[in-house]
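Entry
Fold in token form

___
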Amino acid sequence: MRRLFPLRPLVLLLCSLLAGTGLTVALAGAATALPLASGPEGVPAGALPVTGPLVRPFEPPPEPWLAGHRGVDLDAEVGSPVLAAAAGTVTYASTLAGRGVVVVDHGATRTTYEPVQATVRVGQVVAMGDVLGTLQTGHPGCVAAACLHWGLRRGSEYLDPMLLPALPTGPPTRLVGSEEVTAARREAQARAIAAAAAATGDGAAPLRVGSGQGGWLPPVSGPITSPFGMRVHPVTGVRKLHDGVDYGAACGVPIRAPLPGTVTEVVRHPAYGWRILVDHGVVDGHRLVTSMNHAQGFSVSTGATVQRGQVLGTVGSTGLSTGCHLHLMAWQDGTLIDPSRLS
């Protein structure tokens, strides 16, 4: 009979060797050691790089080679200081594809910031909150006057930077199960989106828009079956912000442009399905952008100029959807708002 090498002495030897390098090992069954003062993917601490609200969330593509939004956009004034989200070393601080980009390496992960006029140099060590540069204009698809596009990567994998914690202090470590980690991350994302919509509560006054353009036109004719606000997602079962309103309409019903504008994006999204974003420009003194989601498809493409009432596509049930409907979203001056207020 073959004699097996005793496992316990080997584990103890490995742990002692790791301890000699300053590393620690936590053995707790299937639990995960989650530092309360750390980011979820090895970042030592997390903080927002600018103080503005989230105007576009992390929207990873279903496949790596497809289009998607591989970071988040934060609204901020041009010239605002852009801060390091965590301690690390600057590995890039120059122009890339016509935009200023700064990359900070944190070891297991790295964060990216653009468009930024860098004030740091490659090789410089920065602490969380150190100024990396100042925000510039020129981020494509920004729904505000200026946006910081903030990214988080682990190797070639894109992660949601809004999942980094905002508080850099707390007890050193506690043990939690993987389900609790997942739930905490989902709640963090929901809170981040809800913060962007904090000014749009129940009882908010209607917004009269487009009076000189024929008035606001609902994109489909039908009742609102799910309002804007916190709810339990019907597919995922997660309580989170319902970031628009749902219109009850049959598949194949035409989706029409509510106001004149320019199509800025047509994409197949894993959650929103086929979606379109339309920039209506300045309407009655405010920048207005709308998005129609879960469509069967669209008959217009990015860059197209559309008129009020023009057919953009047809109602569907693509993405995370339980049936045919239209999910309408809206941003005013870069802030997510309740579309049912538009009239």
About this structure: Confidence is low (pLDDT under 50) at residues 1-44, 165-181, 198-203.
